[in-house]
Each structure stands twice: as structure tokens, then as C-alpha cells.
Amino acid sequence: MEVNCLTLKDLINPKQARLELAIEDGENAQKENIFVDRSRMAPKTPIKNEPIDLSKQKIFTPERNPITPVKLVDRQQTEPWTPTANLKMLISAASPDIRDREKKKGLFRPIENKDDVFTDSLQLDIVGDSAVDEFEKQRPSRKQKSLGLLCQKFLARYPSYPLSTEKTTISLDEVAVSLGVERRRIYDIVNVLESLHLVSRVAKNQYGWHGRHSLPKTLRTLQRLGEEQKYEEQMAHLQQKELDLMDYKFGEHRKNGYPDSQDQQLLDFSEPDYSSSSANSRKDKSLRIMSQKFVMLFLVSKTKIVTLDVAAKILIEESQDTPDHSKFKTKVRRLYDIANVLTSLALIKKVHVTEERGRKPAFKWIGPVDFSSSGSGGYSLEIGSLAAVYRQKIEDNSHESTSVSKRVVSTAGSSETGFPVDSEYCVNPLAHQVFSVAQDLPTFSMQNSLNGQVGIPLAPVSSDVESMKPPLLAGQSLVYVPSTSLFMLCASLREGPSPESGSEGDGRSSEIPATAELSLTPSSQKRLCEDKKSWEEHEPATKRQSRELEDSPLSLVLPKKPSDSIEFAPGKSMGNRGSASLEDTHVHGPHPAAEEVSGNATANCFVSSECENPSRNTDTEKPSKGNESTKEASLLQYLYVQSPAGLNGFHALLSGSQTPHSVGPPSGQLPSFSVPCMVLPSPTMGPFPVVYSPAMPVPISSAPGTLPNTGPVNFSLPGLGSAAHLLISPAAMINPKSSTLPSADPQFQGQPSLHLSPVMARSHNVIQPESPVYIGHPASVVKLQQSPVPVTPKSMRRTHRETFFKTPGSLGDPVLRSRERNQSRNTSSAQRRLEIPSSGPD
DNA sequence: CTCTCCCGCCACCCG
DNA sequence: CGGGTGGCGGGAGAG
């Protein structure tokens, strides 16, 4: 009720309402960090504040950050109505229908306006005087209402990696109100999130927020399922067909007898982690299932690119729907909805695939890949049928000219992987891929690569690696193309495919039995769910964390922000060696520029040590590691590789001593490679050498616990400053994209960074802007730049937040606030509602 | 034009 | 039955 009042009030006098809110904020800010605060704070900490649309939004610029709250306030005061409000008014005036509609939605609208207002205000600041632009932006364009944006807002409310102890409940009503949308839209978001286990239904109108902790696991499961479903095959089949037939007729493929029957149930493993009683009674949950299948397609795809039409066709086939055009159309619509959510999760990114036929909308998986199915290795690619040769051109929307057209020959087994695309984005940089990439690199624009991010395959994906991996050569593993200022570091850790898989399976099994079992049957899946559930619910946080490590929240991590730059598994933060080591490293190494080598070595040592020490991988290791690492460091040997001509002065140091403990190629063919390596960029790159020391040897799967362990990758940039060091967890490297993208997706990435030490943050801040790696990504840059200051409160804050959950410093954090708010809400829904008015509408 | 996908009607289902 | 859910597809904005 009160909510209504509030909204009405707002409606009547938005400005006033806003002020009131502000006041309240001030009052309550400390106990309740509310959105309101957020909005105000936003200027300071843009990151959390606004969900940034990775793919779409270019609007946001660093400038925004500087904005001071004061200004914001002033502006608001001076401007009675926000542009958005005006716009809306105009619109409603113009259209009676709209007006009516507005009235109907009256309750929601106000809030929505508020949101818009804030957003607008920010934008305005950015834009400056250009009223026109402002207007344009102000207008509640379709984009502003897009599901993706909405989803980002939604996600912004919750921590990506909530503490295990903390249970966040999501009230659909509340969310809908606070986001100013109809509940219907929230369902769309929640359904997709639920399909990934980011949330689960707790009760009517109530969802539990789980965050991304289990995402890797879920993805792994989906990948496996996808493999079982032979989606890859199906996709290949469809693609091939398209080549052959311009007109695709539904039903043609069915004969293939792809397993479709099980899907429903299998996919249905989305059973909530919370023992949600009611949970999914919905008749079909098709959106959820669709979402899962869609994800599966990416996961099984070698290219990690899925065109909507193919996805739609596969889905239609499976659903046994009559393949009429309308169905197809509808499917595609749904896929867009799903894709929007997935995009806001930084799991996929939009691209276009150009084939003979023309350009097709598609999405590329940019999320974590380290979770790779590896384990069982069960399903080997037997895609002999794929022997289709097709040429695809993938364009990254984000940037103009660069499109790479590649010819992909998929021969049985190996070829598919060869997709340039992957390499392009470095999602899964395999040695061979790297090669191809290198050739193509010139064509890529920085942006592209950046968007895609730099990827270092720390944990080779078994599937991909196995079949395709060519022998690794020192030269191959690292590619640096100065000309484009794009540099890619690719190292594949494991060589022996077989060994890897085996090891992986073992390790994994040991660690996560449930996973191994996933298998095909629905029951198993359910089990999975249950396991997860129990796991989350009952398992001690510490244990859980350790496990999670494997899962790789890490992969998500790319340092958007200084603090974020290094993400560790959330759990890790607590005591994991990984984090500790990193910190130590930072502490030690930061100073001397000269340290490029020595310092790097040190850093590497740490990393390598981790790698070398299998034990560490397991949960056993701890902070103590730092010491050990140091010791070991001394032992490490590096091979200095002169920059190949092509590399333009890029230097690489490879540690020869290291041997992949877990993976250890039987013959030790490429032992040298498995080692962490240091890469020193040439002058081109700038003063700072980049050191990359992936814990290559450890296949993720093989040493699940270690995963994170793989050890952080160190990039040290002596030139930048004394302290400039970048440590990137291997996992992170794997999914550079995600990390990079994160900029768009502040919350996710930002939060994870538990371990960043101030130094780290500092260094990042300094470095990133300049570092080639980051250049391409506008968003990332922004974030990075956010805190030019050596140690930004923000970064610190985050760190604390993540690590300790709640700290004084974190107060300012919107996310945290929201989280807290939610928790408080949990207590009573009624209260929540009450709160909403005041706090909710930020 | 095509691509996207918002919007909200209305059918399901559950309590 | 009422209300929470969510399938579905018309139709319009964006490019």
C-alpha cells in the first residue's frame, strides 16, 4: 500500500519524491544501503550502479565516474523533471492509449521513471550539454526497456558470489516494483537465471538467489548433457544442411534419431537448490528448458558460436513441435529473450555469422569454458558427419571493420575446433588455434580481441584440446601482434590429450563425484541438483569454497576494475592459497621495476609453485603457500625465447623446469610448454613487460581443487610503475572475454575479486588503461580507470566486501546494500514492501 | 526491409 | 475461483 502511495507521489512530483528519497538515504544509508544511495553513489562508483550492457552500451564512459554526488543533486534540483519524465509526459499526452496504459501501470511507472531518471542523469552528465543527445537518450527507447538491460539491473541487485551463509531471497513483486516493470518481465529473467541455477524458486513469488557459485558446475552439467544429446552433431548437421539446402525444412533431420525424448526431463535438473516445494510446477517451463538447451548448444559447440536459427531449429525438433514457420519465429523470439539474459550475465555475446547465404544473428559464448566437460571424456567427438566445409565469417558487432572470415574444415574430430573464432576471442586458445589466429591477428582490431579478451587457456578444455591440439611449440603458444596492438597469450598447458582426460576425470571424480555421475539420466541430474543443494546448504563454506574453486568462478574474473582484476573463487578468498599467494606476490613484487625479470620470476615462482605442487591444488594448500612458492620459485627455470620476427619484440620466458604435475604428458614431449611462461613485451607494448605465468600444467579437471590454483597469471608491468603487476588467475584467463566484458557487467566481476590486494588494485588501475590487453575494451577501460588513484576506496571496498562480506567500507556498495536489504526483507515480505518505496526506487 | 523483442492477452496450474 | 505463472505472437522500434 505504502508503496503505491510512494509511487503515486513520485508520479505527481518526481522531483520531490526523489529528494525525499535522497534524504532518506542519507538517514538510512548506513543501515540500509539502498538503491537510492546507489543512484547517488553511482557517480562515485559507476560500476555497480548501473548495469552496463556489455554488448550494447557504449554510452557509458569513464567520464561518468568523476561525477560527484553534489552535482547530481544540483542537477536534479534544478531540473524539475527529468528528461525521461518529460518524455514520458509528452508521449502520454500524445497518445491517449499510452496515457491510459500509464495510468494502469501507475504504480510501476513512477519507479521506472526514477530509474530512468538516474540513468539519464548519468548519461546527461556524460553527454554534457548536447540536449539533443540527451533527449535521445532520455527517451525510453526500446533499448532502455530491453530485457537485457532489465536483467542487468536485476543482477545488479545481488552479489555475484554471495557468501555461502547468506541467503538472499528475491521477491518478484519487489523486484518488479523496484525495477519498474511488470512482473511478467521478471519471470522471463528469473526463468533463465533459474535454468542456470543462479536462482531457484523458494516459494510463490519468491526466489532464492544463489549467485554464480554453482555456475561452473551447472555449465559442466549442461555441457555434458549437451554432449549426450549430441547437440554438436545436430548443429553440424543443420549447418551442413543449410549449406546444401538453402531452404531448411523442419523435420528433415529428425530421422537422425537424435535423442530428444529425455531432454525435457534431463534438462529439468533445474530443480531449485532451495528445497522449493512448489518450485517448478509450471507445466512446461519451456523457457527454462530452452535456456538450458541454448546454453548447451554453446557448450558443445567447438566454435562457441550458435546461430539463432540453428538453435531454434534444434529446439523445435526436440520439442516435437510442428515445424511451421510461426513456431520458428516464436522460438527465435524466445531465444532472443534468453540471449538477452545470458548476455547480461556475460556468458554470451552477440555476433554475426556470415555464411554464403548471408548474415545470421548469432551469439558467441564468452563465459567460462574451463569447466569443460573434460571429465568423462566420455563423448568424444565423433563428428565424422561433420565433414562439411563451410566458411563463416564472424563479425563482432562491436567493432566495425574487423571481421574474420575463416574457412573451417571440419573433419572428423579435429577440425571443428579449428574455428578461428575461438581463437579470435581466445576463448579456447589452443596451440593450433593460436597459430591460425596469429595469421589472422592483423585483421583483428584491438577491440575485437579485447572484447573477446585475451585468453589464456590455463585449463585446457579437454574436449577441444584433445582432438585438436597440435603439438605445442614454444613459439606457438604465445602470440603477440604489436601492430594491431593486440596481443594474445596462449598457452596450452596440457599436451597429452589422453592423459589429461584421464587425469581430469580422476581428479574430478575425486572432487566432485556428483558431477561425474551427472550422466544422462534425469535422475542423475536431479541428483546433481540435490547435491548442489545439499552442497550449498549443508556443506561448510570452506569446503564448498574449495570445491568451487574448481568450478571457477575464477574464470569469470577478468579484471574490469582494478580490484576486480583478479578474481578468485569466492570461497577461496577465505583462505585459499591462491589468493594468498597472489597477495603475497603483490606485496613482494610490486616495487622494483627492474623486477620484470626477477620480479616476474618471483611471481611466476608463486604460480609455478602452485602448479608444481599438486597438493596445493587440493584444498590442502593454504596461504602458507606463499612461502613455499617462494622457495620453489628459486627452483624454477625459464627459457628465454627471443621474439620471433613476427612477434615484434615480444619476449617470452618459458620455464622449462616446470612439468605439469597432474597432466604430465607421458613422454614429456612438451614439458617445456606446460610450464608457466613469462612474456616480455617489446617496446611496442610499452614500457611494461607482461609476464604471464599460467599454471598450465594443471588441467582444470585434473586438479579440480587447483583450478584456481592454476595459479594466477602474472602480468607485471614494471614500466608502469613500481607496483604494476597484474595477476590474473588462470581461470580468468581462460575466459578473458567474460572478464573483459564484465565491465559491462560490473557486479559480477567486480564482486568476485576477493583477494585483490590494494597493491593489486593499484597496479591495475595504473596499468590497465595502457596495457594493450585492455585497450580494446571500452568498458573495461572505464572501470579500470575508475580509480586512477593507487588505491581506491572502491577497490578496497570491494575486496573487503568479497572477502569479508560486510565491512564498513562496503557500506557504499550498492550491491551489498541491496543484498543486505534483501536479507532484511526476507524477514517479512510486508516490510519489504514498505521498504521498497523508500529504498527500492533508487 | 529485416532484425529484435516489448508488451500484454490469456491459458495454465496451484492452493 | 483467484492469483501466480508464463506461452505466445502481434506489432512496432531500430538499423
Model description:
The chain is α+β, with helices and mostly antiparallel strands and 842 residues long. The protein has 43 helices and 15 strands. The strands form 5 sheets. Strands 4-6-5-7-8 form a 5-stranded antiparallel β-sheet. A 3-stranded antiparallel β-sheet has the order 1-3-2. β2 (199-203) and β3 form a beta hairpin. α6 packs across α9 (131-138), α17 packs across α18 and α38 packs across α40 (778-786). It binds a DNA duplex (15 and 15 nucleotides) through α12 and α18.
Summarize the structure.
This protein is an alpha+beta fold.
**Dominant shape:** globular
Number of strands: 15
Spans of 5+ residues with little confidence (pLDDT < 50)? 1-137, 246-284, 373-842
Main sheet?
A: 5 strands, antiparallel
- Could you give the order of strands across the largest sheet? 4-6-5-7-8
For the record, give the distance between the C-alpha atoms at the N and C termini, rounded to a whole number: 18 Å
Q: Portion of residues in helices? A: 40-55%
Number of helical segments with 4 or more residues: 43
Structural class: alpha+beta
Radius of gyration from the alpha-carbon trace, in angstroms: 25 Å
Mean pLDDT: 44
Relative strand content: 5-15%
